[in-house]
Amino acid sequence: MGGSGDAPTTVLRPLREANVEPGERAIFRTVSLLHAVARPLTRLDWRQQDRLPRTGGVIIVANHISNVDPIALGQYLAFSGRWPRFLAKASLFRVPVVGAVIRACGQIPVQRHSAAAKDALAAAVTAVDQGRAVVVYPEGTISRDPDLWPMRGHTGAARIALATRAPVVPVGQWGAQDILYGNHLGVPRLLPRKTFRLVTGEPVPLDDLREGPVTAEVLAEATTRIMDAITALVAELRQDEPPAVRFDPRQPAGVAP
């Protein structure tokens, strides 16, 4: 798999200077603690942070490559000036201590594969309307592509975008898989130090899809544009070409029709 060489120096301001967005006391403390733990163990290659809107509701869409990458993405967004509100699987909220922390940090539970999943979308719409930065992994899970390229996406991010008319800002990330690969669990590989590479793209163009009814075709087109934008950023970080056909876990052979 491709890489992007040695990371440039990333200059970090103190969190209270980098992020002045109002937020829960718990989210500031949690981000500060995670940063204190992760910073000595990782290198940072953070790019185009200025593309992230500093105020107002925004939907941030990103690729998912590891159980570690929410930490990498959350740090990047917090130090770029926005407190992330992840749509996270509801089972995490039932884990002792962890559940209490993420609930106090304003994260949004998702009851996957159930009718209650729509409640998460409604909560996300409310958060965006309140001016929050909501983070969605459009793939819905860690990539199952053999080389961890972005898979075919679900329509949740598109539904939130069309309901709120808020900008959809893509973020590509690479590097967390070197600590824990894909959906694997086990002992993290911390040495030698790994590099978290993240880059923000321009907002995904969706205005032409907001003028008519929200049909299945409109949602599919919006989702394709979102995944194309994320994939382009991942290709930039990896300095590699993505597959011509996006992996589709819903197909028996994992190939899109």
Write up this protein.
The protein is of the alpha/beta class and 257 residues long. It has a domain at 58-181 and 191-238: Glycerol-3-phosphate (1)-acyltransferase (3-Layer(aba) Sandwich), CATH 3.40.1130.10. Helices cover 32% and strands 15% of the residues. It has helices at 15-18, 25-38, 69-79, 98-104, 117-129, 156-164, 216-238, and strands at 42-47, 58-62, 84-89, 108-110, 133-136, 168-174, 194-200. The chain has a seven-stranded mixed sheet, with helices on both faces. α4 links the parallel β3 and β4. α5 packs parallel to α6 (156-164) and α6 (156-164) crosses α7.
Q: What portion of residues is helical?
A: 25-40%
Overall residue-averaged pLDDT value: 92
Instruction: Describe the global form.
Output: globular
Radius of gyration: 17 Å
For the termini, the CA-CA separation is: 25 Å
Record the strand order, biggest sheet. 1-7-6-2-5-3-4
Estimated share of beta-strand residues: 5-15%
Largest sheet: 7 strands, mixed
The multimeric state of the shown protein is single chain
Please name the CATH architecture of the domain at 58-181 and 191-238.
Answer: 3-Layer(aba) Sandwich
CATH superfamily of the domain at 58-181 and 191-238: Glycerol-3-phosphate (1)-acyltransferase
Fill in the CATH topology of the domain at 58-181 and 191-238: Glycerol-3-phosphate (1)-acyltransferase
Uncertain regions spanning at least 5 consecutive residues = 1-7
CATH class of the domain at 58-181 and 191-238: Alpha Beta
* N to C succession of SSEs: HHEEHEHEHEHEEH
Beta strand count: 7
Structural class: alpha/beta
- What count of helical segments does DSSP give? 7
